[in-house]
Amino acid sequence: MAFEIGSLTYPYDALEPHIDTRTMEIHHTKHHAAYVASLNKAIETSPTLAGRPVDSILREIQSVPVDVRLAVVNHGGGHANHALFWRLLGPNKGGQPRGRLADEINSTFVSFQAFKEQFTTAATTRFGSGWAWLCQDEHGKLVVYNTANQDSPLMQGHRPILGLDVWEHAYYLKYQNRRPDYITAWWNVVNWDMAAEVFDSAR
Ligand code: MN3
Q1: How far is the CA of 110 from the centre of ligand 1 (A)?
Q2: Host domain of residue 166
Q3: Are residues 68 and 114 located together in one domain of the fold?
């Protein structure tokens, strides 16, 4: 069973004006689709990986055959990262998390505002292409950082709770060189209920 990009739970224009329709469409049907196609191609030659969820493959990246490992890091990471990214967006979202995730953010980062600043810095200062993350580390503690390219936090035993794609393809059509404006806009479409669900499912 080959990997698929899946469909979004909202239309491409649902995140306007924060993330524009054309960017959403190209990002999903071209960029995400390309990662999935390349991942499927890599896995074709490694039957031991077939049928396994991508998250599980990334968690055990050291057991992936060396000849396809880099392809799986890049394209498997690309698939897993984007699949999570779409789930964590939605129209009329933003605001702040509630419940256990909110409590954990407050106790770890002092306040939601302080967390938001730390995350924004991680997203702004990622040089070149990559992602900003809120993750649970191997001890279950919340951590904020960024990764290069499509490197998934799953590869270091972390569980991503919230991820922001800061590759230029994610924002260039609307924001050009203004990554900070894209980051500011993105906070308005974060689906915190979904992030809380991801967080709670990690227990
Ligand atoms: Mn992307």
Answers
A1: 30
A2: 99-201
A3: no
